[in-house]
Amino acid sequence: MSRLQDKTALVTGGRQGIGRGIVDAFVTEGASVMTCGRGERPVELPENVRWQTTDVSDAAAVENLKQQVVRHFGTLSILVNNAGLQVEKTVVETSDKDWDRVMGVNAKGVFLVCRAMIPLMAEGGSIINIGSISANVADPGMALYNASKAFVHGLTRSIAVDHGPAVRCNAISPGWIATDMAQAAFAVAGDPEAAERDALARHPVGRLGRPADIARFAVWLGSDDAAFATGQCYILDGGMTAASPLHPGLF
Amino acid sequence: MRGVSDISRASAVGERYLQDRVAVVTGGCGGIGQAICQRFAREGAVVYAADITPAQTLHSALRYVKHDVALENDAVAVMQQIEREHGRLDILVNAAGIEIETTIEQTTLNDWNRIFAVNVTGTFLSCKYALPLMRNAGAGSIINFGSYDGFIADPSLAAYCASKGAVHALTRAMACDYGPENIRVNAICPGYIDTPMLQSFFGDSGNIESLKQAVRDIHPIRSYGTPEDVANLVNWLAGDESRYATGQLWVIDGGLSAQVQQMRL
Could you give the CA distance from residue A67 to residue A71 in angstroms, rounded to a whole number? Predict the structure, then answer.
């Protein structure tokens, strides 16, 4: 398929999970794709995907990333800010170092990459930020993560308003996606298996999300079909947040 | 401004994305409804344009079926016809809707009841009688029409705003109830889309052209939406690419509601 033919795309955090799913979908749809992460190039990354080792919380590294985009692509059609991490702590448990890690990647990193790349999108572009349902409703014990995603939603609207009409900017707010991050959250529960069963029961679609679920909507948002869509934080969560957080077995 | 040439842009879903799916679009002869019907037909679906009056010219691939969405008998008859001809229904789009441009003091009880009869009861009835046919299919996608007016108010549209809020709540409730049967329910919430309904909204204003320009320029995207813009998202929600999406309200408004009121300083 070729829905993103002739488009160039940068996806941050493309090593695994949702980011990797988006990279794969964009390649399938004909885009030229660059991705980045803190470590070395993943060995299984398709050859036609460019890799740039980058810590998005480091302004100098992001400037270097921009130079690579300019060198290889010239202009940029699609930017996906996916790089993110979580620390499972309440406010009282959170250290200054935790703050720097979470806010450095999830908040400052999104800001730095947007600031660097928006000037490369003057001919028209689509920014897709990975927000979270946790920005709207709190995940317990995830205080800074929740707050960092609220930052992403606020920045999404600001970019849409300030940099439209050339740049469209939307966020996708995934619910529970079956990634290592979700498994880590289950692992800290008293009974991890019961926690996972309970999580499934809370999803009207009867399953957790997959990176491909998010990637398919990222393709839509990156395509010309989404020409009138901007400034929104679209929830893609299997229906979980449409329902009250009461335990589904109560009635 | 984007123009009609946009319609020929590369499709943003797979080839023949809705091949052989059976779809009913209420309000299918209206401004947005027709664009949805045509997109569905292009994607390979069997499309019934259900409306109270037929379009003057209906695309040859579409089947017209008379449907006053406020009447229970009509909803029953439409779904009986679909069952006779196909035995199942895959997609229902509740695009039939009306608006009345009044404050609540200016709204008669008849006006209030009429707008709720079409926008809310119509959605309820179409869904109620479509669900058994979706159960036959083993899966289904329902797309209701909410509005950005279900979140924030336009002046003198009180009953319309309230009716769209009701559709939003109904959408979430149905998603919870029918998700386990593989039936997804979402609402699309358009902003200012260039349709006859929008022309009617502007029709009462003094200086129409300058008002239209002013409203256009408030949008971060600097244009009105087209019926095709709405159809593009309805199309994505109708098919399997959105199979993890349910119970959500999908605003598509050119960024209008992402911003705070703009002060004229």
Answer: 6
